């Protein structure tokens, strides 16, 4: 099988980590029978400055027409009046699920082992960006729409349930690694305040997860503020957390803090038959150009993309190589307390592939 | 001076901790020349079941006409189709600031010392609760309004700046306790996605904090997801964090996790000349009726209420008594790993007053 992958480095350290992701794909063992071809695509702030748009049509068209998947780096966001291309891309390609696994390995666990995944709705909520501002005698008043649909809430909850089952199968195949004996999905919302929008999310999630196929899944719920509290007090308790877009955004950064560095946390933007791997970290202007950005989040995002393209064996090989690197703790970038460069970490992971 | 205080225990453990708060006020040293009178007021789920409303007019009227301040316990929230009375109360009394200090004491610090305060806007954002649901061929679609006004953003940022200055004065009077030499306010928002609403909050906060009186305050900003990450990675760095309503809600539960228990974290809902002390924890049905709820959050909320009623000396006495209790670590409730009852903790704090 040959997969065509779009490469969208974006800005800042996105340009340092995406090439590492490409190297990983090129170096997969030939026994996997997987080939890759690549196409370089533009997006981000520099693209915006050059062309007047942060997300050129050509990027979207090429992804739609030619590609099976893509890797997205990061874009600078601290600039006013310019709209984030990743948010637009998620909507244009209907990549409705943002999947963010957060786990410790034997080597980087400071406390109890964490192995959870945040499944974030990726197309609506406040991210519809429908805003307006009016002038009143008392100053400006701005409003934004938070939109929650039954349709989007159902499909995100359904995929959350499927991910919970898949994780359970993986655990069953490798007994002893985890002590969890029942898959669990935690529905996150704020329906005590937002009875209609978050109420609809909650109710629809309950319905989706009540399906026969999920009968082995334990379903519970948490109000978002309490979810953040519990995430920090007993992270080892959680398995799959499903949340509307904005809560998912916040929760995944919070979970990343638990495992030591945003530089470790991958994500995949997943639609039907398409996936974009994207490290959770940003463009990190403070360390840009020094060659010390952590490539692990991107490398794991490569694996996650492959998982959602159905290539489980390739994904497993990459995860194992990353775990090997982290457990050995010999080549770690500065965000992990080490002194290694991006290149050294990459080489170490390649060696373990 | 005699202050008249409304007591609104609400539901669950609210009924166990509010009486403790009353005892503290009654037991303040007479040298402070402060007297208190009390009025018992109803609100919450049981009130809703009994009277059909969670917040009777009588409660609001009495607070408005007779009281200088109030203590609010907690209300059950896990019930659909019933609207939270504290949210309504904040709006009806225009208690525009929700102030939530989070700090470690020598005795309960596990890592670096934390001493920060979250200043949460308390009247608008998604808490305006303007929602609607429409039926479409593709299922239900619900929308909620997130409203951000220049007016509310300005006054919350202004009070955040004032709190930063006040904290600096307290530090200056007790040198050695903290190593911070400049007050700081961190503006939290998500203007990279919500350019108009959160953009207005950010811009207005910048303007409010650029006032001459705040020239000694260092002002910085964080995107909310990154704020949660940083809060967990380097909490000791933060002083005053100002945020729109929902982010403030989430951040304060997150910060509470850092100091070990929600049972320690107080809040005050502050308006011009009025303040309601409110522990950050909920009604905790799991431990209700066992007499083991932690009264510290309420006792600190009493002090915080007094601070905003201008009674700094009384507040300082209460804080010191609480710190004494925590540092001695002899009488701690189970949430803190101890075995003491609510009553024993209360008596220990009273002894130290
Ligand atoms: C850059 C920003 C628009 C984005 C988001 O909020 O989705 C980022 O925080 C993320 O989590 O991918
Ligand atoms: C009970 C709930 C409505 C409330 C809120 O969201 O404000 C609570 O979480 C709080 O923080 O006081």
Automatic annotation (TrEMBL), chains A, B:
Keyword annotations: Amino-acid biosynthesis, Lysine biosynthesis, Magnesium, Metal-binding, NAD, Oxidoreductase, Phosphoprotein
Catalytic activities: (2R,3S)-homoisocitrate + NAD(+) = 2-oxoadipate + CO2 + NADH
Pathway(s): Amino-acid biosynthesis; L-lysine biosynthesis via AAA pathway; L-alpha-aminoadipate from 2-oxoglutarate: step 4/5
Keyword match Oxidoreductase: yes
GO MF annotation terms: homoisocitrate dehydrogenase activity; isocitrate dehydrogenase (NAD+) activity; magnesium ion binding; NAD binding
Stored InterPro entries: IsoCit/isopropylmalate_DH_CS, IsoPropMal-DH-like_dom
A single cellular component GO annotation: mitochondrion
PANTHER family with a match to the protein in the record: DECARBOXYLATING DEHYDROGENASES-ISOCITRATE, ISOPROPYLMALATE, TARTRATE (PTHR11835), HOMOISOCITRATE DEHYDROGENASE, MITOCHONDRIAL (PTHR11835:SF48)
Protein name: homoisocitrate dehydrogenase
Organism: Penicillium vulpinum
Source organism phylogeny: Eukaryota, Fungi, Dikarya, Ascomycota, Pezizomycotina
């Amino acid at each position: 099988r040959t997969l065509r992958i779009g490469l969208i480095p974006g800005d800042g350290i996105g340009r340092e980590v995406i090439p590492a992701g490409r190297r990983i794909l090129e170096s997969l063992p030939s026994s996997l029978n997987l080939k890759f071809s690549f196409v370089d695509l533009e997006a981000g702030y520099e693209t915006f400055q050059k062309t007047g748009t942060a997300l050129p049509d050509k990027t979207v068209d090429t992804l739609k027409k030619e590609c099976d998947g893509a890797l997205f780096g990061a874009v600078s966001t601290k600039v006013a009046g310019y709209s984030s291309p990743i948010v637009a891309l998620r909507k244009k390609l209907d990549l409705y699920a943002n999947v963010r696994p957060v786990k410790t390995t034997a080597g980087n666990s400071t406390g109890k082992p964490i192995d959870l995944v945040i499944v974030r709705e990726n197309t609506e909520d406040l991210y519809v960006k429908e805003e307006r501002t009016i002038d009143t005698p008392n100053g400006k008043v701005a409003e934004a729409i938070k939109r929650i649909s039954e349709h989007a809430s159902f499909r995100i909850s359904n995929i959350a349930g499927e991910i919970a089952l898949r994780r359970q199968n993986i655990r069953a195949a490798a007994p002893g690694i985890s002590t969890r004996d029942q898959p669990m999905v935690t529905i996150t919302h704020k329906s005590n305040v937002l009875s209609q929008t978050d109420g609809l999310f909650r109710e629809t999630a309950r319905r989706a997860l009540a399906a026969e196929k999920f009968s082995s899944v334990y379903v519970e719920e948490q109000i978002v503020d309490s979810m953040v509290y519990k995430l920090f007090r007993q992270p080892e308790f959680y398995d799959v957390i499903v949340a509307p877009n904005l809560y998912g955004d916040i929760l995944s950064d919070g979970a990343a803090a638990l495992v030591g560095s945003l530089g470790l946390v991958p994500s995949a933007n997943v639609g039907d038959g398409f996936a974009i791997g994207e490290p959770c970290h940003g463009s990190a202007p403070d360390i840009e150009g020094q060659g010390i950005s952590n490539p692990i989040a991107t490398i794991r995002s490569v694996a996650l993309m492959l998982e959602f393209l159905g290539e489980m064996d390739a994904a497993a090989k990459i995860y194992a190589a990353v775990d090997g690197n982290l457990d050995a703790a010999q080549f770690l970038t500065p965000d992990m307390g080490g002194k290694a460069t991006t290149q050294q970490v990459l080489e170490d992971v390649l060696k373990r592939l």
